Amino acid sequence: MPAVAAAARAGERDREVRKRWRRASHLALWALSLTPAAVTLVDAFTGRLGVNPIETLTDRTGWWAIFHLLLTLAVTPLRRITGWHWLVRYRRQLGLGAFVYASLHLGVYAFLDLGLDLSHLVEDVLERPFMTIGFTAWLILLALAVTSTDGWIRRLGRRWAALHRLVYPAAGLVSLHFVWGQKTLQAEPLVFTGAFALLLGARVVFALRRRARGGPEPGRRGTAPLSERA
């Protein structure tokens, strides 16, 4: 019996260490995700945003929103290719990071560029396709962020996975918004668009292979937050 008790205590200590490590890793990821926002805030207060600060803020927040969305969609292919199933733990955070920067991007436009003129904002969204696309993408990310909690996963059941597959149309809209927003054709928006297309293609290939086998994805256990099953 003493040996059994000792093994139980060792197992409990091991679980506690893993729990603390996961908590620390999530905090570290949040710190990394929010570092660009902190740097931008410092630049704003020290006058280092260039001759057009609002445009710089808009560009930076938009870029980091797209970058986080790209990382979010890259989790499944990386997990399938490498077998690193632990990556799934950080999908929700990356997705929420995309939503945070997308909201900052919209906020800069609404508050700083338009002076919170809601009638002007509504007019832009309704009459300018470039804005319509961007705002639609933000609404999708809003829905995914709100329903990313475990409580919403339980409430929605099977519908949750279908809802979170909207992350792929959102990525397409974001790519179009990015390309359309450039005054001239540039390489960076096309690179992001190509990366999104590649990740979507990988998702389709994995889904077809899984369907051919008639079984679930390797390493999938239950339902995980923010688009793990998307």
Describe the structure.
This protein is mainly α and 230 residues long. It has one domain (52-213). Helix content is 78%, strand content 0%. It has helices at 2-45, 53-82, 91-113, 118-127, 129-146, 150-156, 158-164, 167-180, 187-213. Helix 2 (53-82) packs antiparallel against helix 3, helix 2 packs parallel to helix 9 and helix 5 runs antiparallel to helix 8. The chain is globular.
Topology record:
Elements: H1 2-45, H2 53-82, H3 91-113, H4 118-127, H5 129-146, H6 150-156, H7 158-164, H8 167-180, H9 187-213
Helix pairs in contact: 1-2, 1-3, 2-3, 2-8, 2-9, 3-5, 4-5, 5-8, 8-9
Unreliably modeled segments: 218-230
Number of strands: 0
Beta-strand share of residues: under 5%
DSSP summary: helix tally: 9
Radius of gyration: 21 Å
Instruction: Describe the sheet with the most strands.
Output: none
How would you concisely characterize the structure shown here?
Helices cover 78% and strands 0% of the residues. The chain has 230 residues and is mostly helical.
Write out key terms for the chains shown:
230 residues; mainly alpha; 78% helix; 0% strand; globular; disordered C terminus
